[in-house]
Amino acid sequence: MNHLTDSQLNEYLDAALEPAARRRVELHLQGCASCRARLHDLQFVFSNLATLPEIGLARDLSRAVLAQLANEQVRPWSPGFAAQLGAALGGVVWLAGEAVKAMHNLDLSFLIFSIPQMVLPPFKLTFPQIHFIIPSPQLIDIGWANFSTFSLALLIASAGALWVVGNAALLRAGIEQKS
Amino acid sequence: MSSADERELARRVSQGDHEAFGELVSRHQQAVFNAAYRVLGNVPDAEDAAQETFVRAYRFFGRFDPERPLAPWLKRIAVNICLNRLESEKPESALDEEAAAAREPGPEAQAVIRQRDARVRLELARLPPRYRAVIELRHFQDLSYEDIARQLGRPVSSVKSDLFRARKLLAQTLKDIE
Fold this sequence. Notes:
Chain A is mostly helical and 179 residues long. Chain A is built from eight helices and two strands, in the order αααααααββα. Helices cover 70% and strands 3% of the residues of chain A. In chain A, 7% of the residues are buried.
């Protein structure tokens, strides 16, 4: 005689069998003491799990949970982080100051008509456009490169802005990963 | 469908009402703790896991549909947290605790029942973590094979194999208390 498989017995108790399969199992159980014994052992496990009582929780978790949530919302910034952010913001402010100084000589029509030439192929940038973008011809010689004060301010401010955005993105990703 | 007052609490939580969330914690902490305890088999770890469950639930409360009951969602989070913990922790302390309870003498009927329950918990704690997880999700959270597979990110065949094997092990180890 072929006995019922473990799968059949388990799925029978889980009520996961199709009606026809269920009837075949029941028919077999009627005539097979060995499978009835195996079924009984499984039913014993089911009943013990079903009647297993909960154990009492010794402490109220709500206060600890709310305290943790409150602490996460008011997390203080570290001095190092604050210093770096200050430097980045300082770069942005410096750029704004340089831009304001250059604005009084701004020729908007020149800028507007020059944009396609600058941003479309072949990305040609003529000297007048370079002089327009970099109005402060104060050059800073650092040996292997020359920077005008404006372009240096632009570079530092861009790095600062990227730093702020990047840290925000990494912080958010860190929180989500930890969760 | 969750009760009307629970839906109201969930609505307030969505608006950042901590007091409302505290009320939800109080209502569900017992069930969540026990779900964690059945998987971890250790009271201190289960308390920590339950607390972490609620913190995570608050962070991701926007993903919860308030029209659905909260308890199943919380218990599923708890199981995931417990499984992550078990990947790096050793559960021997759980066995010590339950083994001591299972050895308690006592002729009275209630003591016998407590001893039996402690023995069941002991044998549950002795199962491999993945077996404990499927037992918890099937027997205590009443999930189907497919829902268990979806939650654990595994094939249905693998879930059924672990579940049937876990039951077989429990049947063998609990035979003497029958």
